[in-house]
Amino acid sequence: MFYARGVSGSGKKGSSDDEPPYARYAFLNPYNLSLLVGSTVAAAATGHWWLAVCAAATEGLWMVFAPDSKILQRAWFDKTWNATKRAQLEEEQDQKIAKLWPNDVVRFKLLREQKTRIEKLATDNPSLTVDMMGSELVKIDGLLEDFLELALVCARSEQHLASFDFKALQQTWQQYTKQLEHYPVGDRRREVAQKNLEVLGKRRQRYEELRRIIETSRGQMDLMENTLRLLADEILSMANPAELGLRLDDLRVGVDAIRETTTGNDHLYEELQVAEQEAEAEAEAEAQQQGRRGRR
Fold first, then answer.
1. Which residues, at least 6 apart from 247, have a Cβ–Cβ distance to it below 8 Å?
2. Lower CB count within 10 Å: N or C terminus of the chain?
3. Extents of the domains making up the chain
4. Cα gap 91→185, rounded to integer Å
5. Nearest one of 94, 110, 220 to 154, comparing CA atoms
6. How many Å apart are CA 273 and CA 202, to the nearest integer?
7. Mean pLDDT, 10 residues at a time, over the chain (296 residues)?
8. What is the pLDDT of residues 227-236, one digit of tens each?
């Protein structure tokens, strides 16, 4: 139910998806391709094939040294990689935002603005080095992803609960409880009442579980907002970037705890829907039986 978070820093080792494709950037760029194609066309047009040979040799040297050049990586390749990852992240975020409640969309955008403010304050603070802060501030990207995921959990759960008539459930529960007490053992009506009470019990249990998930997720979302506001207030006086990192890590721990309780809970929605269908079927069958008894 939750997704991977954040944009990894450039140059970090890991899976192939987390490593910039330096060789591809060195070869597939307008400058390299235009020179390669241009020299080939010129060689074909003039008949001076040594131009193509020189171009191929130069291209070979370029592809040997350019991908591993630290200068090119910092000045060009890493920037291209970060821009690409950022665009992918924003596209994924836009898809998630489209599924949120309007109020949560506003909260997320404000949180994203708060992130920009924190980064600016950290950059302007001379006591915090850019290299040390970079590894800490990148965690905020992950927090924004976590906020979106929690908001999605809340939106989905609240949509289910919006169609849940708890008052009607309580009334139906009392109705079948009276029937269970009234009809003797062996009576078909008592068996139907017992089955309905079992279904209603499941529905009430799922209702309470979804409410707990919503309340916990909403509380964690509030904590994220409050903590980032606090970070912005305190960052000017922070002498140790590790303090910022510890606060962000604490938030991630809280989100991970929620993730453990919500992962795999998609069955709640399915069971709630099945229980509702079972309750409707039992109620319809009981109504038909009562109608036949009334006609007799």
1. 227, 230, 231
2. C
3. 1-91, 99-295
4. 61
5. 220
6. 11
7. 38 56 87 87 87 88 87 85 79 85 93 85 68 65 87 89 81 88 86 86 85 90 86 69 72 74 57 60 66 62
8. 888 877 777 6
